[in-house]
Amino acid sequence: MSSVAGTLGIVIGLASWVGALRWLRVAQREHYIPGRIWLFVRLWLRESPASIVIAVVGFFGAVSAWSSALPRIPHLIAGAVAAAASIAAPIGLGLRGRTSPLALTWRLRRLALVVVMVDLVVVGVGIAVGEPLGAAVSAGWLSPLLVDLALRITAPLERRLMGRFVDEATSRLRRVRPRVVGITGSFGKTTTKGYVAALVEGTYRTLATPASFNNRGGLARAINEHLTSDVEVFVAEMGMFGPGEIAELVSWVRPEISVITAIGPVHLERLGSEAAIVRAKLEIVETARVVVLNVDYPRLALAANALEQEGARRVVRVSAISLEADVAVKPNDEGEVVVYAHGAKIAKAALADVVAGNLACAVAVALELGVAPEDIAERLGRIKPAPNRLVAGVSPTSGVEVLDDTYNANPMGARRALDALGARRDGGGRRVVVTPGMIELGRRQYLENFKFAKAAAQVASHIIVVGRTNRRALEAGADEGRDEPGSTLQELRWAPDREHAVALVREMLEPGDVVLYENDLPDHYP
């Protein structure tokens, strides 16, 4: 009986570690940033009361499993309960994932190895004090904290390993010597990058970083894999998770022209204030001789004045509002956008759903690189929306118009998407908004989602709220908006995930209807 019980104890202890796989997946999806795991533990427990119950049961099971004074069977049952809780909770956070499965990269394998080593240390302590089962199930039950600990342990190693690729990318940049354009902003980075490439290619051989390769590893990979000897202009998107990150990128990428597209609350969760966001974004100007700033944002207008007074670099102001800016892009009454440089019209084009401020940034960059105004005018027709950023199309099977804005997650972009949906109301069909809301807005997250849903109730006939992350804010905003004069909202529904939401859309819509998919969250969000 003793050997059987011991074997069962080992099996139970190992089973309790299975739950760590889900937290490894969260770590991977959150760019291996220490501290993010605990944020998601709180988020899932907040949105899933059943998970709280399971966690409490698991806690008491783990505590009981430490007591070898219990009879053998109750002791094993306590361990089994704790192991089951570590596997089951949080309810809905899958081990494999539907939208973002675990990718067995070398970095993940190294992290998993360290997690196992930490688990074994905990078990070793348990063996030393005569409580191996309690230690094993506790390690499984505390797997979120242990994964986060492993992230902190491996961070210096991973930075050193990545340094080799950064050194290679730095050497390649020095050999090729392209003119470098660095683009950052709270939002609009990827769209502006695409606009710049469209306007400059043809005058210069141009390389823009693919997809959202905008951090240290992504930029190094883009350079090492794609920067060939004939590239004359390199357009680098630069993102950040905290202060100092853009400064580190600039230290080796060294932009000649730096662009800040917008400032908004997108990074509030990590930086705390818009003033801190501006300071972090302004790190991009360090090596630049020219700085392009969208002065429609008051904080960037102030930054433009301050940089100009310093005199170390030239400031180019752009706007989608004021013709007094160095470069302005504004719509006319014929549905075209008109491009102005220093007050003079240089181009116009019929561009649907173009982001005028982002286009103004791109035109300013093209002019600074020496692209002729007539070439800019001719190339405006190449401007395409970035994938999944307010891309319009009609489904060939259903005849439903789809506005795909699934990669947008900021309040201004969300309002622009609602404007695009509202502009389609003349067709008379149903207009549906499908959204999980916006994230990483810190203390403003509830308010911004509330305001978005309230505004959506003025243009949409149906709203489908996806998931639980922002459900309360979105439903409250939609309910208030429905009670206001002019509301078009007929129905508010909830779907547990994107797949269920898409199924609802397919059931209710017909040719001539329009659906806006506003943002999409990976499934490690509740």
TrEMBL record:
<dbReference type="InterPro" id="IPR004101">
    <property type="entry name" value="Mur_ligase_C"/>
</dbReference>
<feature type="transmembrane region" description="Helical">
    <location>
        <begin position="73"/>
        <end position="96"/>
    </location>
</feature>
<protein>
    <submittedName>
        <fullName>Mur ligase middle domain protein</fullName>
    </submittedName>
</protein>
<dbReference type="GO" id="GO:0005524">
    <property type="term" value="F:ATP binding"/>
</dbReference>
<dbReference type="InterPro" id="IPR013221">
    <property type="entry name" value="Mur_ligase_cen"/>
</dbReference>
<feature type="domain" description="Mur ligase central">
    <location>
        <begin position="183"/>
        <end position="365"/>
    </location>
</feature>
<dbReference type="InterPro" id="IPR036615">
    <property type="entry name" value="Mur_ligase_C_dom_sf"/>
</dbReference>
<feature type="transmembrane region" description="Helical">
    <location>
        <begin position="6"/>
        <end position="24"/>
    </location>
</feature>
<dbReference type="Pfam" id="PF02875">
    <property type="entry name" value="Mur_ligase_C"/>
</dbReference>
<keyword id="KW-0067">ATP-binding</keyword>
<dbReference type="InterPro" id="IPR051046">
    <property type="entry name" value="MurCDEF_CellWall_CoF430Synth"/>
</dbReference>
<keyword id="KW-0812">Transmembrane</keyword>
<keyword id="KW-0547">Nucleotide-binding</keyword>
<keyword id="KW-0436">Ligase</keyword>
<keyword id="KW-0472">Membrane</keyword>
<keyword id="KW-1133">Transmembrane helix</keyword>
<dbReference type="GO" id="GO:0016881">
    <property type="term" value="F:acid-amino acid ligase activity"/>
</dbReference>
<feature type="transmembrane region" description="Helical">
    <location>
        <begin position="44"/>
        <end position="67"/>
    </location>
</feature>
<feature type="transmembrane region" description="Helical">
    <location>
        <begin position="108"/>
        <end position="129"/>
    </location>
</feature>
<feature type="domain" description="Mur ligase C-terminal">
    <location>
        <begin position="398"/>
        <end position="516"/>
    </location>
</feature>
<dbReference type="Pfam" id="PF08245">
    <property type="entry name" value="Mur_ligase_M"/>
</dbReference>
<dbReference type="InterPro" id="IPR036565">
    <property type="entry name" value="Mur-like_cat_sf"/>
</dbReference>
